[in-house]
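Hi there, hope your week has been kind to you so far. Do you reckon you could talk me through the fold, stretch by stretch? I've dropped the whole record in just underneath, so have a look:
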Amino acid sequence: MTQLFRPRITEKAIAAVGDVLRSGWIGLGPKTAEFEAAFADMVGAKYAVAVNSATAGLHLAMVLAGVGPGDEVITTPLTFVSTNHVILYQGATPVFADVNPETANIDPDSVRGLIGDRTRAIICVHYGGYPCELDALYDIAAQHRLTLIEDAAHACGSIYRLRPIGCWGLAVFSFHAVKNLPVGDGGMITVQNEADYRRLKRLRWLGIDKDTYSRTVNDVGKYAWEYDVPEVGYKYHMNDIAAAIGLAMMAQLPVDNGRRRAIARMYDAGLRHADIIRKPPLSDGETISAQHLYAIQVRRRDALIAHLKARDIAPGVHYMPNNWFPMYRGCRGPTPQADALGHTLLSLPMHVLLTDDEVQGIIEAINAGW
């Protein structure tokens, strides 16, 4: 079976785990701090805070934005449910904007029309790794004094207007097992001011103002027990095992993302079946996709899924629009473009272990008809 996703973990990453296990410090500690600093440097952010999942990171972003009961958050329906569950965690209401049919990213014009007195924040998702229209979205957020949260789960290594995703504002990345920077699970929040950074570090460690490592770093061998708990927080911190993998895999990210873009170009050049409505946008000079997904829009999608599975090729669907699920059906829209994409989007296998022959086999299977 040609898999939809498949992670590649380098020998360097495997060795790094052994080093951490032998170090005697495997929880939140020096490797996590090193990973945070290296990641911030990579994406051009002022600060980065490591957490145990992107879902945890998005939840903390909601808290940081002050979202609470009675508030509304404008969001996209074309995403994994984590994006919108975190709105519900805070007792707020998702308001679904429509999407651009070419990119599957949230449509700024739709966002503008949904802002009301209860709107507190906007979430955009860089679908498949292709960046959203951040200029327009940040302008909207600034004009209405809203927080823009970038769900960058697909966008580790993406570039918008020659600047990395992660340097623009508040962004949350995923290191899930099949993401571009696979750690097993984990996430990173990037922010641009020190106050947000310090609060996020508290929030990811139960609201405590000093984590265990920071209470030893200035006096090695002695454990300082004093700390304060200025607010309720969560046990969302990363550990040094995951951080060691992340540090090692960061070195591989440019190569891996380059391979993903090469596979996307092969698909783009080879696919020509008449039932393909649209292919995803590829990188241009100023906007570069991390190419987490290669999602086509296709008529008779279910027939193509069956056709590919019969040939031991595993496709996927990203995503069923969230406002189709019962818990979200009462939320405002409308979202005609997202609804249409919910019937046509199909993700083709996309991972760095795909060979050229496998990619060509997928192309030939699709072009042969179904």
Summary: The CA atoms of residues 120 and 145 lie 8 Å apart. The chain is about 35% helix and 15% strand. Residues 254-367 form a domain with the Aspartate Aminotransferase, domain 1 fold (CATH 3.90.1150.10).
